[in-house]
Structure formats: structure tokens, C-alpha cells
């Protein structure tokens, strides 16, 4: 089962971009795509904190304020619907204002496929792509057994290994009933997606890697440079899978510096 945008376009955009009003229209629109099982709240603390950027956390269905909506289990329908939302929101912003996309972990892979979908449609692409916590999409990487088929206890153990989820949440059965289904759906999106060779992008890509990430080696994150003919920059943070959130001030600095030319 997949979710599809329906109803009033403004209502659809509001569901996908719940902090749109708080972000405003100043600066470069920065659409932020969360990790597996995550939602817009992962990026909520970034709103108003990245100089030169209007941070727009993306809220996929099946979690947080959209927990009653069916989640996506495949990449194709997800990026098709998300592309329509991005195109509509970009059109509603001041004419000619550039935008950028940031994706963390699964969000990085979704961002990559989103940009390909926009290119196939002939739509204006972003001025910059930021990725973190994800190996380059063309690089095979063994990050363990498929998560989508794990039992609940196995899923919880995976979350513990990744970090970023408080133990009190992982110990509360009622909370697990809410966070494990979207995580399983998101990993299905990731694990069933098959990389297809296409021409590289011609836009700048910035990769924010970390030194101790069990799901994304620093070496293979560096190979995002093979996905663009434009500029490429790699920054490495000390820490694990969620280092970009744990060291948010440094992350914001790198983003702001990369976007400076368009501000």
C-alpha cells in the first residue's frame, strides 16, 4: 500500500511540509528528508538556525502528525509523489529563488532518486544536494541482514546499535507500536530499491560523513563525488550515524557556507 497526494494542493503541501510557515521565504529553501523511521521532527530544531536557508523538514506519511496515513513501501511511488509536492512548493516561493535538498541516511537515497525523478520530468532541479549517513547509491555495501524482515526485538536492537533513539522510548511497548511500523516500511523502501545507472548530475554535492557509522563507511560516502560533474565537498564529523544531529552547529556551518553563493 502506498500513500498518494490528494485533495487541496495547499493541504497536501501542508501535510508534507508541516513547518512551512515557520521557515518563511527568506533564503534558500532547504528540503530536509529524514532517516528511516524518522519524521519532520528530526529537523525541527534546525528551523531558523541555518543562516541563509529556510529549513523545510519533510514529513513522510505513517508517522508523527501523519501516523494514520499509510506509509510507502517502495521508492518509485514515494519520489513520484514527493516530486509533485516539491515542484508545487518551489512554484509558490518567490520567482527564481533557488532551493536545495538535504537527506540523511535513507533520506539521502530518497533525495537522490527524487532529483532523478525531477530531471525525468524536466523540472528545475535544486542548486545543491546535501547527503549524510548514506553510502553513494551505486556502491554495494553490506550493512547487515534486511531490516524489513526483522522481528520487533531485532528491530529494537538495530535502533540501539544506530543510536539516536532514547532508551526510554525503546523500552515502552506503546511507543514501539508507533515507531516500528514506519521504520519497517522505510527499510522496505531502501532494501527493495535497485540502483539504475543514469548520467551524473551537474550540481554541487556536499557529503557529511562520520568516523564511526555502522551503516555507511566513510570511504563509500566519499564516492558521492561520482554522481556529479559539478563541485564536490566532503566533510567528516567525529561520531556515529547521527553525528550531523549531535553536532548540529557544525553541520549548519557547512550547509550555510555551501549555500552562501545563492544568498
How far is the N terminus from the C terminus?
41 Å
- Stretches where pLDDT is under 50 for at least 5 consecutive residues are none
What is the number of beta strands? Answer: 6
Helix content: 25-40%
Query: Can you count the helices?
Result: 10
What is the percentage of strand-forming residues? 5-15%
The global form is globular
Mean pLDDT: 91
Strand order of the biggest β-sheet: 2-1-3-4-5-6
* Helix-strand topology string: HHEEHEHEHHHEHEHH
Main sheet attributes: strand count, strand direction, barrel closure:
6 strands, parallel
Gyration radius from CA atoms, angstroms? 17 Å
SS class: alpha/beta
Description of the molecule:
- With 263 residues, this protein is α/β, with parallel strands linked by helices.
- The protein has ten helices and six strands, in the order H-H-E-E-H-E-H-E-H-H-H-E-H-E-H-H.
- The protein has helices spanning 9-16, 20-23, 75-92, 106-121, 152-162, 167-170, 173-192, 218-221, 243-246, 248-259, and strands spanning 28-33, 53-57, 99-104, 128-132, 205-210, 232-237.
- A six-stranded parallel β-sheet has the order 2-1-3-4-5-6.
- Helix 8 (218-221) links the parallel strand 5 and strand 6 (232-237).
Amino acid at each position: 500500500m502506498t500513500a498518494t497526494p490528494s485533495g487541496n494542493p495547499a493541504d497536501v503541501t501542508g501535510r508534507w511540509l508541516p513547518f512551512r510557515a515557520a521557515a518563511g521565504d527568506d533564503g534558500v529553501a532547504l528540503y530536509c528528508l529524514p532517516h528511516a523511521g524518522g519524521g519532520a521532527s528530526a529537523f525541527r530544531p534546525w528551523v531558523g538556525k541555518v543562516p541563509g536557508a529556510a529549513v523545510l523538514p519533510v514529513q513522510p506519511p505513517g508517522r508523527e502528525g501523519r501516523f494514520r496515513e499509510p506509509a510507502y513501501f517502495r521508492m518509485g511511488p514515494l519520489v513520484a509523489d514527493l516530486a509533485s509536492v516539491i515542484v508545487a512548493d518551489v512554484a509558490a516561493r518567490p520567482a527564481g529563488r533557488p532551493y536545495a535538498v538535504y537527506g540523511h541516511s535513507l533520506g539521502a537515497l530518497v533525495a537522490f532518486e527524487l532529483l532523478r525523478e525531477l530531471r525525468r520530468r524536466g523540472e528545475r532541479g535544486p542548486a545543491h544536494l546535501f547527503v549524510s549517513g548514506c553510502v553513494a547509491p551505486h556502491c554495494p555495501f553490506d550493512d547487515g541482514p534486511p531490516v524489513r524482515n526483522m522481528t520487533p526485538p531485532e528491530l529494537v536492537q538495530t535502533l540501539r546499535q544506530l543510536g539516536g533513539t532514547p532508551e526510554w522510548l525503546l523500552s515502552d511497548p506503546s511507543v514501539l507500536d508507533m515507531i516500528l511500523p514506519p521504520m519497517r516500511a522505510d527499510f522496505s523502501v531502501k532494501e527493495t530499491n535497485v540502483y539504475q545507472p543514469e548520467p551524473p548530475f551537474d550540481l554541487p554535492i556536499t557529503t557529511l560523513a562520520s568516523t564511526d557509522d555502522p551503516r555507511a563507511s566513510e570511504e563509500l560516502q566519499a564516492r558521492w563525488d561520482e554522481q556529479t560533474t559539478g563541485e564536490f565537498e566532503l566533510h567528516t564529523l567525529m561520531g556515529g550515524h547521527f553525528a550531523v544531529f549531535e553536532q548540529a552547529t557544525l553541520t549548519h556551518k557547512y550547509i550555510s557556507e555551501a549555500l552562501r553563493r545563492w544568498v
